[in-house]
Amino acid sequence: MDGDAVSKGRLAVVLILAAVGVSFLVYSAAQLLIPQPGWQTVQAAGLSSGSDFSFLYNSSSSKEGKGVKDVYTRACQVSYQLFNSGEEFEGVRNLASINRHPNEALEVEGALYEALEAFAERGRRELYLGPIYERYEGLFTCEDDSQLAYYDPSLSEEVRKEYDEVLFFANDPQAIDLEFLGEGRVRLKVSPEYLAWAKERGVTRFLDFFWMKNAFVADYLARELIAAGYTKGTLSSCDGFFRTLDGSGMDYTYTVHHRQADGICPAANLHYQGPMSIVRMRDFPLNERDLLYYRALPGGEMRSCYLDPADALCKSAVDNLICYDREMGCAQLLLEMIPVYITGEPFGREEAAALAAKGVDAVFCEDSVVCYTDPQAVLTDLMDLTEEGGVRYTAELVRP
């Protein structure tokens, strides 16, 4: 926090901290550089989505604090159940219910219906990679490198063939597709051939949001809190989805990281005022929770959760892409980013300008230049590595 920020009484909130390698980062209460009176970390009780989120709130009274906690806890519990792809809950029609009742019309909650429909409206097929996502979870969490070939299609021809079988079905709307019947009713249509194949292999997870889930959860939590009148806070998930609800004019700071040959560095700080939605996609881990979605191979090559539905291989067009907007939610931002990020083509200034033309502002690094598309963006603390024989980062506006 600089002197000017202090003199204006503004609080800087660090949403991502600098890291060395993949050392553990505290992504909850420690994200406040200097806790101020009234600010607190709100934790959801029970089994909920709260384990993936940090929620910082500027409470003016104990009564308000209790109200915030009650609303947040309820929203976290509901979202955990709705977007769960593998477990059903009594009295709830969730994603697991759809997976386990193919070809049946089910009535689901509006938030889940809207999330599924958002993919369908854009013709995206990522949701149908459920069986492959389940296998990739093993890639990220297996204890011994000798097990990697059981999950990685680049290391095993047998696994490659298995994934190709899934892709044959997943990319064919005649084999599997969602049908939206209105009034919250949805049907997962699965062909007899795919059902027979799935039964033979014990597959039950046809649909899965996987790494994308918390974009929709973040929006759901934000919507519930705003509806209840609790807006003096900021939500951040451990996997890159942020909703700042606060519209008071307070200054927030997001650290822009850049992967270099010898490690990860904090290239700059992006300052903003809320309300704001932010989504980041990067091809390297920064915190311990990231290891649920990344795996370094023995030779140093990195695997990530960003799978291309065309071939089930992980792809990243640029090492770190940060997109934000005041009007869009995290889910809408994510769906704009996926086509330009999970691709074999590089992401550069032309792609950033195209996003900006759609109302999505982007920040990314190109060599030692921090490129940004928002003319109102404030970037400070540009990394200077010249004393160590490195480079000094600069910032450059990219115009549509």
Please, could you describe this protein's structure?
- By secondary structure, the chain is α+β, with helices and mostly antiparallel strands.
- It is 29% helix and 23% strand.
- It contains 10 helices and 17 strands.
- The chain has helices at residues 3-7, 62-82, 95-100, 110-121, 130-141, 157-170, 192-201, 213-227, 330-341, 349-357, and strands spanning 39-42, 53-58, 105-107, 176-182, 185-190, 233-237, 241-244, 251-260, 263-273, 276-282, 294-296, 302-304, 320-325, 361-366, 369-372, 378-380, 394-397.
- The strands form 4 sheets. Strands 1-2-6-7-10-13-14-15-17 form a 9-stranded mixed sheet. Strands 3-5-4 form a 3-stranded antiparallel sheet. Strands 8-9-16 form a 3-stranded antiparallel sheet, with no helix packed on it.
- Helix 2 packs antiparallel against helix 8.
- The chain is globular.
- It starts with a helix and ends with a strand.
- Residues 1-35 have low confidence and may be disordered.
